[in-house]
Amino acid sequence: MGIIVQKYGGTSVANTERIREVAKRVLETKKNGNDVVVVLSAPAGTTDKLIKMAEEISPNPHVREMDMLLSTGEQISIALLAMAIYEMGYKAISFNATQVGIKTDKAHTKAKIQSINSKKILEELKEDKVVIIAGFQGVTENMDITTLGRGGSDTTGVALGIALKADEVEIYTDVDGVYTADPRIVKDAKKINCISYEEMLELAGSGAKVLHLRSVELAAKYGMKIHLRSSFLPELGTIVKEEGENMEKAVVRGIGHSKNEAKITIVGVPDKPGIAAKIFGRIATENVNVDIIIQNLGGDGRNDISFTLPYTDLKRALEVSEELKNELSAEKVIYDEKIGKIAVVGVGMKSHPGVAATMFKALAEAEINIDMISTSEIKIACVIKDEDLVKAVEVLHNTFKLDNGGIKIEEL
Amino acid sequence: MGIIVQKYGGTSVANTERIREVAKRVLETKKNGNDVVVVLSAPAGTTDKLIKMAEEISPNPHVREMDMLLSTGEQISIALLAMAIYEMGYKAISFNATQVGIKTDKAHTKAKIQSINSKKILEELKEDKVVIIAGFQGVTENMDITTLGRGGSDTTGVALGIALKADEVEIYTDVDGVYTADPRIVKDAKKINCISYEEMLELAGSGAKVLHLRSVELAAKYGMKIHLRSSFLPELGTIVKEEGENMEKAVVRGIGHSKNEAKITIVGVPDKPGIAAKIFGRIATENVNVDIIIQNLGGDGRNDISFTLPYTDLKRALEVSEELKNELSAEKVIYDEKIGKIAVVGVGMKSHPGVAATMFKALAEAEINIDMISTSEIKIACVIKDEDLVKAVEVLHNTFKLDNGGIKIEEL
């Protein structure tokens, strides 16, 4: 009998038929005695169409106006869903971010939510209405419309859950949960019933693109439970929550991987303080999302600095790297446009260094060469050839017995 | 060197190519030293598409949600135009009705503007920006989004002109002005350079659908000059302003006509006080737009009550009329679904009753039968067979010498 926040993605509201299905699902939850707050994305395809129009007009559209443009998509979804709920005999009301006071900073196209005024929403819930809110968008103090970046509706959902002290935030999508590995690659991949915020963040950062990173960070900060599930199936999906509490004790929770990565190495960089800061500061201003960074000290007082990045950013990053090479009097820039990244993730490995050894051994036995290694407390990531990626996922899924509840500590 | 408000309709912003053309036109005005405020409609076709989606979901969509939905169309146009202006090296900023405080009453889908907060607009003009505002929409005190009804962007333009004390409001459309008759029918029809508010209202009410009625009423109330002109041609169009001032002294300014009208007669209504109020009160609740009403007292203490209405409302109005017939013990309901309406309009006829006689005589000589007559101070309207309409327009255009400056009083 609490408040439930349900977020539906673009494919769930792609057309009027699907919007009616969402209305039915929302009303089922309502009939079970819950107050329901719904967050919607724009209908699938709408945002892309708007971006295309903007790009026809300007190769580099003004960001404030871009947000003005893009925020229309969600407003269409929310109005249509409210109509559908009325048509089914219940009451509803839709709000855009401005109306409901989803305040953000001024960083257009990638704004961060600062506060939400829950008063209006709570008043409408008291009137027995389903409250439907435009995801992805916010408003600045100056009443300018902002957007939160691709996937930002997940973050709107979590932020609303926190502001309304909801029991949980249900995120409906076109997959039915988080898997131990990509089920399109590993046919024995199992749905994970429960995963910690940290693990989810590491998996998401390693290629499992099921939840917007910011939304998980926000949920972690406030301990808001996320239930990731399918819009089209009735089954429970994956719960993302605090570590520990009723969670299965697996050493490795899942395996993430990503293709379409590239690697750049600036060879022979003079070994002076502040060089790395200079290189990555410059690359960051180009909005290139650098992932793994490795620096090798050579014998001659020079370093090789390598980093991985999305393939789509390669061209831009190479231009900057060439400039940096000249400025820093480095030797040369080399790159590899066909690398892959694989990561094993699990809170169980915090105190068990044996996981890394097991992983490297399994890859070696499968004759997969490791190019770079990066670790966190709960993740070990390796850069390998992209042609080895599928085999690596299968081998590691098997090694860590993820088709069967996961390997136990004593088995390592 | 004052403020000019320019309103562009949906065909002028139908695609990105046309939006660029609007940007050029706006910047020409700006380069001439004016501050420019632009009001835009939704891209042509957008509103119809949104209405179709709503109707797929609900045969009678919730009006608040309908306004939420429809207001997205203008927001797309204004953002794209702002981008186009930036791309041409100038500054611009777009505002929806909420951001700029276009306050209306709560009558969703047909709201009336109550006030506009000009402060924000004036501030942005001082920053040398072109200010671009979403037409057609408003916001209630409670922050709900409203719309002003079809064609409402004209009204937004005029209301902004008044609030900003603009020199004039330019309304850009796909015709180049108001004509002495529909130029598709009368090949000698002449563009009217100057027309009074009253004449424009009567012509618009008689079928010349070039300006939203409310916008002319509003302009008349505050004496705001409207310049109606083509988006695609450089020539001056038609100025709508106070009567008198530099205006040509024609008896008849123009001829309006409309097809697709129907007529209903309730025959044998008992002649009692309050009957007409009852009939038209009931019909009004059905949102049927009754135009001409005529009541004939029969010899037997019974009346025949006839009225004209748009053909599209005929079915609904007939149902109500049948109910009323039974309640009032009238004899029967008859109707004619093929009538036309023709009207001659001109302030010059205020003190010259000869116009009516000239009109009736001309129609009689052309063997066009007059079914109903309705007059105002500056208009004489006749209901005729719709098949006679084209001929009637040609005959009257000729009779009143509208191809040649208009008939003079002494010629009547």
From TrEMBL, chains A, B:
UniProt-listed CDD domains: AAK_AKii-LysC-BS (cd04261), ACT_AK-LysC-DapG-like_2 (cd04923), ACT_AKii-LysC-BS-like_1 (cd04913)
Which cellular component terms (GO) are annotated to the entry? cytosol
Ranges where the ACT domain occurs: 264-338, 344-412
Q: Where are the transmembrane segments?
A: none
Is ATP-binding a UniProt keyword of this protein?
Answer: yes
In terms of InterPro entries, this protein maps to:
AceGlu_kinase-like_sf, ACT-like_dom_sf, ACT_Aspartokinase, ACT_dom, AKii-LysC-BS, Asp/Glu/Uridylate_kinase, Asp_kin_monofn, Asp_kinase
Single annotated GO MF? aspartate kinase activity
Instruction: Specify whether Glycosyltransferase is a keyword of the entry.
Output: no
Say which enzyme class the record assigns.
transferase
Catalyses: L-aspartate + ATP = 4-phospho-L-aspartate + ADP
- Its family? Belongs to the aspartokinase family.
Listed PANTHER family: ASPARTATE KINASE (PTHR21499), ASPARTOKINASE (PTHR21499:SF3)
Enumerate the NCBIfam families for this protein.
asp_kin_monofn, asp_kinases, PRK06635.1-2, PRK06635.1-4
Protein name per its UniProtKB record: Aspartokinase
Q: Which organism is it from?
A: Haliovirga abyssi
